[in-house]
């Protein structure tokens, strides 16, 4: 199976890049399933039902959310109506929606998608992601009726992302980090067959401070004082993500490659 994961979509620039480029990528890479993180898609903070629908229409199969899952209040009710959106596993048990979903893929195959929030340096005291992922992956075991499993680790610390990657290696097809908006150079296949990248990067304008227009973040760093609201940078976005090809017999990764297209970063596409 051929899977594509695209990192955090930041604002209008990121949305435009996904909507314009994904249909061509689906054809060029013969993609079977596409997962996109949309938690920064609405002006950098959360996602809306309209934005989600636009991304689905462009060819996204599943949308993930992270620590900004409920920044847009309409998402609280929308998550129970739209099963293609996955919120983090390890937040309040009463939260709407689900932290794991199983989707239909071409030729009768099944893909499970789940998201766990890290705890190191994060603002909220989230539940333990290790035990949360244990429970989720037992509910949708790779090879037990599920042909591929995508695990998003939405976290600040690279060490925590790596630890969680090794923790679920062998139980997932792809373990990919999100949240820090900068692509890492460590795409690899782990010892027990899971594709891994510490952070996929963002779909946003890289002439920015992690996707936000530079003046306000710079002012805050220099003065240490709060001020105006952050606004997404509006230049051309780079589409950033990771491509994985799996073995249908095992669900393990046979190939993994970073993907970057457009904008300021050097392009790289899977062969």
Using the coordinates shown, work out and report the CATH topology: Purple Acid Phosphatase, chain A, domain 2
Number of strands: 12
User: Uncertain regions: pLDDT < 50 for 5+ in a row?
Assistant: none
What distance separates the N and C termini?
16 Å
Q: Count the domains.
A: 1
Which properties best describe this structure?
alpha/beta; Purple Acid Phosphatase, chain A, domain 2; 6-stranded mixed sheet; globular
Helices, strands, pairings?
Elements: E1 2-6, H1 11-28, E2 33-37, H2 49-57, E3 62-64, H3 74-81, E4 85-86, E5 100-105, E6 109-117, H4 129-139, E7 148-154, H5 158-168, E8 174-178, E9 188-189, E10 195-197, H6 215-223, E11 239-246, E12 253-261
Parallel strand pairs: 1-2, 2-3, 3-4, 6-7, 7-8, 8-10
Antiparallel strand pairs: 1-11, 5-6, 9-10, 11-12
Polypeptide structure, described:
The structure is a single chain. The chain is an alpha/beta fold and 271 residues long. The protein has helices spanning 11-28, 49-57, 74-81, 129-139, 158-168, 215-223, and strands at 2-6, 33-37, 62-64, 85-86, 100-105, 109-117, 148-154, 174-178, 188-189, 195-197, 239-246, 253-261. It is built from 6 helices and 12 strands. Strands 4-3-2-1-11-12 form a 6-stranded mixed beta sheet. It has a 6-stranded mixed beta sheet with strand order 5-6-7-8-10-9, covered by helices on one side. A hairpin with a 6-residue loop joins strand 11 (239-246) and strand 12. The model has no long low-confidence stretch (mean pLDDT 97).
């Amino acid at each position: 199976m051929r899977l594509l994961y695209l990192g955090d979509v930041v604002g209008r620039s990121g949305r435009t890049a996904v909507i314009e480029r994904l249909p061509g990528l689906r054809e060029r890479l013969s993609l079977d399933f596409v997962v996109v993180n949309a938690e920064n898609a609405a002006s950098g903070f959360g996602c809306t039902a309209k934005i989600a629908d636009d991304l689905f229409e462009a060819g996204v199969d599943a949308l993930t959310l992270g620590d900004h899952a409920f920044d847009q209040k309409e998402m609280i009710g929308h998550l129970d109506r739209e099963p293609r959106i996955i919120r983090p596993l390890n937040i309040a048990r009463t939260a709407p929606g689900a932290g794991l979903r199983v989707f239909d893929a071409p030729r009768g195959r099944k893909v499970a998608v789940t998201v766990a929030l890290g705890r190191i340096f994060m603002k909220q005291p989230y539940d333990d992601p290790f035990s949360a992922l244990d429970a989720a992956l037992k509910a949708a075991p790779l090879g037990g009726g599920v042909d591929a499993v995508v695990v998003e680790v939405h976290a600040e610390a690279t060490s925590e992302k790596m630890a969680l990657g090794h923790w679920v290696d062998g139980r997932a097809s792809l373990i990919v980090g999100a949240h820090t908006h900068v692509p890492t150079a460590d795409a690899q296949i782990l010892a027990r067959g899971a594709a891994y990248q510490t952070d996929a990067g963002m779909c946003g304008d890289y002439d920015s401070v992690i996707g936000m227009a530079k003046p306000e973040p710079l002012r805050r760093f220099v003065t240490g004082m709060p001020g105006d609201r952050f606004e997404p940078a509006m230049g051309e976005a780079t589409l950033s993500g990771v491509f994985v090809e799996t073995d249908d017999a095992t669900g393990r990764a046979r190939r993994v490659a970073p993907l970057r297209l457009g904008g300021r970063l050097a392009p790289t596409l899977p062969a």
